[in-house]
Amino acid sequence: MKRVCIIGASGKLGQYMVQHALDRGYEVVGVCREKSVAKLDTFRDRITIIPGATNDREVIERAVEGCDGVLTVLVPWGVNDYSSGTAQAVLDLAPADARLIFSCGWHISRDGQDVYSFTFRALVAVFGKLMRLFRLVDIDDQVEACRRIFASDRKWTVVRGSDLEEGESQGLPVWSRHVGDAVLESNLTRRIDFALFMVTALEDDALIQEAPAIVGRRSPSAQTAEAAS
Ligand SMILES: NC(=O)c1ccc[n+]([C@@H]2O[C@H](COP(=O)([O-])OP(=O)(O)OC[C@H]3O[C@@H](n4cnc5c(N)ncnc54)[C@H](OP(=O)(O)O)[C@@H]3O)[C@@H](O)[C@H]2O)c1
């Protein structure tokens, strides 16, 4: 892994991923909206920034050229297929052997075997309807984006984040295949560690074509699982 592209580099998750990637000595190309370029000022001299919308295929084609890995922040902004357009561009245009890592939340299910609490389902349903009503966010489009990724034969990993908090790193989060598994019960991960998991996945072949649901390594449920093992 020498050169990686971070799509959505200026957001909170994106900036943590830039730092982790630089820490590993990777050459970094970041894509972010023109209006957000200044958010990457601290990295300005160490990364290449390509301004543009993440679902703009020309932007993505330029950004992923020569990359061994692509880290994509999937967020379903608006109601014009932003998330699925972004995922499709990466799937179509990234170099054939590149590792493709995508972020999303626990609400995405690969095989329908995830078990969600009533509160979680209610929150997703209410939030999803309200956001769609105001044309701000279309959760169904993130579902569609992931459906396309799961159907692809590329070397993808879809990292499903729990609720997030800020704070110092607790180390690499632990993961499980299904929400509802006991180890995930605490439903909390530090954002810096979500980013760490994304970047570490680039070189972890065991995660190819997996959709790990993650939780903080020092969260109570992860510690209970560790003590029991
Ligand atoms: N927040 C949570 O609690 C949570 C929980 C689980 C999983 N996740 C997953 O984590 C990832 C990002 O999480 P995050 O909360 O840390 O967010 P974030 O990193 O701040 O990412 C938000 C991204 O969306 C972009 N963005 C914001 N407004 C936009 C708009 N109107 N049009 C186009 N792009 C826009 C941001 O770019 P700019 O810099 O240009 O604004 C940034 O790249 C997502 O994949 C999400 O599904 C989040």
Explained architecture:
By secondary structure, the protein is of the alpha/beta class. It has a single domain, classed as 3-Layer(aba) Sandwich (Rossmann fold). The chain has seven helices and ten strands. A six-stranded parallel beta sheet has the order 3-2-1-4-5-6, sandwiched between helices. Strands 7-9 form a two-stranded parallel ribbon. A two-stranded antiparallel ribbon has the order 8-10. Helix 3 links the parallel strand 4 (69-73) and strand 5 (99-105). Helix 1 crosses helix 6. The protein is globular, with a radius of gyration of 17 Å. The chain starts with a strand and ends with a helix. The mean pLDDT is 97. The site of NADP nicotinamide-adenine-dinucleotide phosphate (NAP) has 21 residues, from helix 1 and strand 5.
